[in-house]
């Protein structure tokens, strides 16, 4: 997937990764992730429509099939919402920054998980806390 700069130059993942750290979340990087998240959202919406139709067509037993359909649609809705929220953070200029610490999330992490809202350190702390307290 690629994004464009103001000069319409297409950027690749490798070019994004090669940018200096002090150029973190520059306009070209923000555009790269805006395009990526928009494409991911659109693909999810397309897949959601066909998945929902397939689940409804393949109903064999009413209750389990209904439950599976609702659960699948709910999961797809949450994934679309994650992408919408990330696009909102891009529009606000907050994308790429950890919501807990304010530190950079990191280009590598964002390429792997464009909807990430926490740095790796903050995510690991949250997971340890959840495991410890069963939250």
Describe the structure.
The protein is mainly alpha-helical and 135 residues long. The protein is 65% helix and 3% strand. The protein has helices at 13-18, 27-57, 62-92, 107-112, 120-133, and strands spanning 3-4, 10-11. The protein has a two-stranded antiparallel ribbon with strand order 1-2. The longest helix has 31 residues, at 27-57. The mean pLDDT is 84.
In short:
The protein contains five helices and two strands; from the N terminus they run ββααααα. It is an all-alpha fold and 135 residues long. It has a two-stranded antiparallel sheet.
SS summary, helix count: 5
Strand content: under 5%
The count of β-strands is: 2
Across the major sheet, the strand order is: 1-2
Q: What Rg do the Cα atoms give?
A: 18 Å
| Helix percent band | 55-70%
Extract low-pLDDT stretches.
Answer: none
Distance between the termini: 36 Å
Structural class: mainly alpha
Oligomer: single chain
Main sheet overview: 2 strands, antiparallel
Mean pLDDT across all amino acids: 84
Q: Tell me the overall shape.
A: flat
Q: What letter string, H or E per element, gives the SSE order? A: EEHHHHH
């Amino acid at each position: 997937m690629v994004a464009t700069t103001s000069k319409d130059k297409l950027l690749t993942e490798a070019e994004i990764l090669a940018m200096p750290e002090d150029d973190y979340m520059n306009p070209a990087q923000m555009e790269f992730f805006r395009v990526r998240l928009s494409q991911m959202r659109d693909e999810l919406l397309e897949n959601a429509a066909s998945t929902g139709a397939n689940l409804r067509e393949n109903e064999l037993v009413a209750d389990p099939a209904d439950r599976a359909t609702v659960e699948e649609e709910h999961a797809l809705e949450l994934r679309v919402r994650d992408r919408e929220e990330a696009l909102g953070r891009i529009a606000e200029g907050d994308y790429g920054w950890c919501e807990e610490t304010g530190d950079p999330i990191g280009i590598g992490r964002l390429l792997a998980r464009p909807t990430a809202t926490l740095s790796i350190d903050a995510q690991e702390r949250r997971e340890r806390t959840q495991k410890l307290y069963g939250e």
